Amino acid sequence: MNVLLTNDDGIQADGMKIMKQYLENAGHRVYVLAPSGNRSGISSKISFFNDLEMRKYSEREWSSSGTPADCVITAFTSGIISEKIDAVVAGINAGANIGTDIVYSGTCGAARQAALYGYPGIAVSLDKEVVSDYEDFEYKPLASFVAENLHELRVLAVTDWPYGFVNINAFNLSYYKGAVICNKASVRSYNDRICIRKKEGSDGGSASESDTYISSFSGGNVQTDCSGGTDFKACSDGYIAISVIQAEPAVIKVEKDIKFTL
60-74 pLDDT, tens per residue? Predict the structure, then answer.
């Protein structure tokens, strides 16, 4: 298969390099178009108002100063890749994209953009925060699974309305008990907070200078729904968790009888 490989950790990320190696070893032809640097937490952001700088590393490998979604858009609309792409793989991401994480993930943003274009999108993420056989990320077991099962994962993707991309998560283990399809995404509470402090040297001067503050993100203790059928539960039990995530926004049906005044 012809595979477009991207990520949100940047073109130099080990997870993507190892994913590329295993895909090629499995006989797939890999095209890389990835961000020039880390774009974690950028979701599906696209660049409307500024030109993007691209760098060519080889005939099938490029970087972009844009976002993961930008990379997918560029790959499919610019003519930079002449071959028909059979699947888009985003990852392997360094960190989980479980349940609520999907909203914020640049990795999932790339897979979602592929789905919206009608191509099979597959997001792949590895988490070592909860339980791990390794001190650092060991991508090879998960990369091997994706490369050897790419056809089956591609079939899971939904390439017509409402479209759906495949979201794969696993913990940082030396081997897995198997892979399971999860029909429930975990709800995660991050307990984050923003710390605000006055900028040093901002006292005195004009009003704009004296009212300058710095806000800093402070990560909290993540609490995750671990009930049966969730992606987090599957990972916790030593499995690779596979979910199909709807790409198009879904409307919640309103049952309440509300009258509006104009």
Answer: 999 999 999 999 999
At residue 9, what are phi and psi to the nearest 5 degrees?
A: -90, -10
114 with 121: CB under 8 angstroms?
yes
CA angle 161/166/169 to nearest 5° reads: 155
Residues 231, 247: Cα–Cα separation, whole Å:
18
Q: How far apart are CA 16 and CA 21, in angstroms?
A: 9
Banded model confidence at residue 207, pLDDT cuts 50, 70, 90: low
Residue type at position 130: V
- Answer for the pair 20, 30: CB distance below 8 angstroms, yes or no: yes
DSSP, collapsed to helix, strand or coil, labels residue 161 as coil
Percentages of the chain per state (helix, strand, coil), in multiples of 5: 25, 30, 45
Residue showing tokens 């017509």: 160
* Amino acid code (one letter) for 250: A
